[in-house]
Sequence to fold (547 residues):
Amino acid sequence: MAIEKPLSEMPIGTVGTVIENGLTGLTKRRLMDLGFIPGSKIEVLRKSPAGDPTAYYVRGTIIALRNNEASHISIIPHNKF
Amino acid sequence: MCSVNTDLSGRLETLVQEAKGKYSKEVREKIVDNIYREAENIAKRTVVKPPKKLDWDGKIDNILTSRITGYPIMLLLLGVIFWITIVGANYPSQMLFKILFWGEEKISTLFYFLGMPQWLHGFLVLGVYRCVAWVVAVMLPPMAIFFPLFTLLEDLGFLPRVAFNLDNFFRKAGAHGKQSLTMSMGFGCNAAGVIACRIIESPRERLIAILTNNFVPCNGRFPTLIVISSIFMGGALAAPYSSLVTPLVIVGIVLIGIMVTLIVSWLLSKTLLRGVPSTFTLELPPYRRPQIGQIIIRSIFDRTVFVLWRAVKVAAPAGGIIWLLANTYLGDSSLLNSLATAIDPFARGIGLDGIILTAFILGLPANEIVLPIMIMGYLAEGALLELDSLIALKTLLLDNGWTLMTALSVMLFSLLHYPCSTTLLTIKKETGSLKWTFLGAIIPLAVSVLVLFILNSISSLLLLMN
Fold:
């Protein structure tokens, strides 16, 4: 069984399941509305040419998050989507 | 009645307190979780997904957000849009000038025919009509070209990728990547740029974008910048290079504007706006085939006509006031000249002169009329006017003591000074606050005076040493 890791440390191509959204306040609410809630499947798609932010595929849409926000979201990586 | 109300609110208050104690903040999470689960169930029963085709979006994204091709494609596209706008607006602008000034002659004839008094003709025709005609002729063509092109990029889904590519630079300045889009919109019109800030959902970053939008030169300022740089900066080099200098100077001015935007954004996020809530998310929607009809409606009616109408509403009274100032005499000097003389010492301290600063003050309603007011002031004429050729303009400016430093100071002041009144009205509408509107004017003004003061102190110091 894999252990949970911060989303920001996942390389491009990783797929996984969100375990916890550890943010607070406005940001947490906003990300929950966009589908970053425990149980959501997620895929790391691509990084900005400047390194940050990173685009994720979650619940049918592509959402880009900055490393700072993504580091508070933990996921368990698995083999396929 | 009153007692019932207090009773009721008191009971509500206790209920609220009770609820707060009972349910922890996880309630919200549970609600969202349930909504998603329910939606998922419904979707499973009803939505049929088409078989997966080739991932075109992914392929396009690979090119548009690539380390190698991402930035060049972006710059090329924006560059092409600006080029089409500036070159394409030239001819229709001249046509409009001809038509509208032909109209002015006809109206003047009518005024004389009806035996209207001189001052009424001056105020209404030479003042109000001419100022409105001027603003429309200079503003309408570039906006009618720029807004549809920009809306096309928006409709294609390209713009969010620009924000994605550039966000890191804006993050370092405490701003949002989408500010790159509101700034691009600002090239068309700062008022439209300020409205565009609605796309930034985070309150702090949105205010930053609104307050700094003015640092990108709008369509109303480009002509002034181009004319002055081609007069004073192209001429210094031999013929084959001189035509290259103007575009380079303009690019340099735009880059200075972007630099100032990032610096002021950073300062705002560290001072005035510290503690205002902030969040970052950016959706990269699927690419779509553009809907041409939609684009035309959105860009022409929602943007071009909307902005133009706002500009006309302020240009009309401004034209009348400018005419009155230029034609009301106290002793042997017009009010306009008295004003110019009064502020001349201050203006010279920052490398301008009284007439230039007066033109910027009276040009508050629209940056398009700043240069015409300057010409009017230097020629001591009573109405806005333009000269037939660049050479005539150059001679006039040189005769009035302009140097390369003056030209540079005027360009920087044009780039950095307060936004036009249309934009200020828009800031008031968008923020709903007089405080932010006031700061939206005072911050750029302070920046511009500071920059000019430093620049001119250095230059006079260098002159002293030589």
Observations:
- The two ends of chain B are 85 Å apart (CA to CA).
